[in-house]
Amino acid sequence: MTPDDMENRIVRYGDLQPCRTAFIDAHTPGSDQKENFTIIGGGVSESPDQHVHIDIPHGFNIGAAGQPPKCRNSLHNHRTAEVFFVLKGRWRFFWGRWGDAGETVLEEGDIFNIPTNLFRGFENVGTDYGMIMAVLGGDDAGGGVLWAPQVIEDAKDHGLILGDNGKLYDSKKGQSLPEGVKPMPLLTEEELATIPEPSAKEVIGGYVRRYWDMVAIADRTPVNVIGEQGLIRDKPGFEVDFITRASATDKKHSHDKPSVLMPVKGHWRVDWDGGSATLAPGDTMSVPEGLAHSAVPSMTGEAALYHVVATGDRAGPTWLG
């Protein structure tokens, strides 16, 4: 594969195209400055304005959220896996029907495999613009998002209505629900009662892993972070490995499904049969199935990356499902 072919499968951090109207809380004060990015796959955006950088099916989706300080993403639920790692900044994740069942704060490099069937939200609690990278299960990312009822009601007061077709309509732009489309129904109290409210101890202990802990154990071989035998034992439809300078190798390997390389620290040189490229933190590279490749740090200093590959498992559920 030529370097030009592979360059088309690399999304550079500086080339990311944000969508500022991706979800129903786009006008709600406190959430109206967030930027959403769909990097690989169709994503879960409710807006036709969302730009998809690479539309090749991988068995999972890659996305990102960028937010200034004190900006939050409202409480929502997914039917499939949602995994975040912090690229820049400091982030508070919270969960539960009202967002008060538990919370945790993640620093750069930390990873959170959020269980399915759980209301979750997050906010930038750092002092500068922050970015979190996301892996979503399945090619269709679970068919959309389920919002906590209060999020839909708040959004209506600020001009946004979500149709039962999963699309947003903005009264500030003169839009209204088309004929035959009704407002998305709110979850009933009976439906809400089936959604767990796990404690912080349950979630943090089972589904959060800290960057420096992973660095310490990735001193010889890459660490399987999420997988059937991973640090987080789960089968969300993909596996996530963590690789550092100490565990990287220039020995080429391949996969029978497309894989993705996502540096979090340092610069990485990726070699394949036909060329090479250098990745920086925030870049995302899709490697075709069957292509022999390797990745090693290209400069001195701290270096770590996440590697994602589909497993063919159904995309969820986790133990809270």
Structural commentary:
The chain is mainly β. The chain folds into two domains: 14-208, Jelly Rolls; 211-310, Jelly Rolls, CATH 2.60.120. It has five helices and 25 strands. The strands form five sheets. A seven-stranded mixed sheet has the order 1-23-20-25-18-16-17. A seven-stranded mixed sheet has the order 3-2-4-11-6-9-15. It is globular.
**Helical content class:** under 10%
* Strand tally: 25
Intertermini distance: 41 Å
Beta-strand content estimate: 35-45%
Tell me the number of structural domains.
2
Question: What is the overall number of helices?
Answer: 5
Class per helix and strand makeup: mainly beta
CATH topology of the largest domain: Jelly Rolls
Low-confidence stretches: none
CATH class of the largest domain: Mainly Beta
Largest sheet: 7 strands, mixed
CATH architecture of the largest domain: Sandwich
Mean residue pLDDT: 93
Strand order of the largest sheet: 1-23-20-25-18-16-17
Overall form: globular
